[in-house]
UniProtKB/TrEMBL annotation:
This is Putative nadh dehydrogenase ubiquinone 1 beta subcomplex subunit 2 mitochondrial. Belongs to the complex I NDUFB2 subunit family. It comes from Psorophora albipes. It is a peripheral membrane protein. Accessory subunit of the mitochondrial membrane respiratory chain NADH dehydrogenase (Complex I), that is believed not to be involved in catalysis. Complex I functions in the transfer of electrons from NADH to the respiratory chain. The immediate electron acceptor for the enzyme is believed to be ubiquinone. Its main location: mitochondrion. One of its GO terms (biological process) is mitochondrial respiratory chain complex I assembly. One of its GO terms (cellular component) is respiratory chain complex I. InterPro entries: NDUFB2_animal. The keyword Electron transport applies.
Length: 99
C-alpha cells in the first residue's frame, strides 16, 4: 500500500514540475500556413502573377470580342417593332367616341 501511494505521489510531483514550463510553451502553435493577421501576406511568385495577368487579359479579350461580334446576345436577335405602327386596340387605349 505504501508503494502505491509513493507511485501516485511521484506522478503528482512529475506533473507539477512539468507544468512549470514557460508560458510560451502552453500556447498552441500550428504550423499549417503563413499568418497574415494585420500584415501583408507572402508575395506570390512571379509565375503566378504573370499567369493571373495573362488569364485576366484573355478573359477581357473574350468578353469584348463577343460583345463586338455577337451583340445580339444583349440587344436581342429580332428587330424591335416600330411603336408608331401599334394601334390603340393593341395598346389598350379606348376609342375617343366611347364614353
Amino acid at each position: 500500500m505504501l508503494s502505491s501511494r509513493a507511485i501516485l505521489l511521484g506522478r503528482l510531483l512529475q506533473r507539477a514540475v512539468s507544468s512549470r514550463a514557460p508560458a510560451i510553451r502552453s500556447q498552441i502553435v500550428r504550423h499549417g500556413h503563413d499568418v497574415s493577421y494585420r500584415m501583408n501576406g507572402p508575395k506570390p511568385e512571379m509565375a503566378a502573377r504573370v499567369g493571373a495577368q495573362v488569364a485576366g487579359g484573355l478573359m477581357w479579350w473574350w468578353v469584348l470580342w463577343h460583345l463586338f461580334h455577337e451583340y445580339e446576345h444583349i440587344t436581342g436577335e429580332f428587330a424591335y417593332p416600330d411603336p408608331a405602327e401599334w394601334t390603340n386596340a393593341e395598346l389598350g387605349i379606348p376609342a375617343d367616341d366611347d364614353e
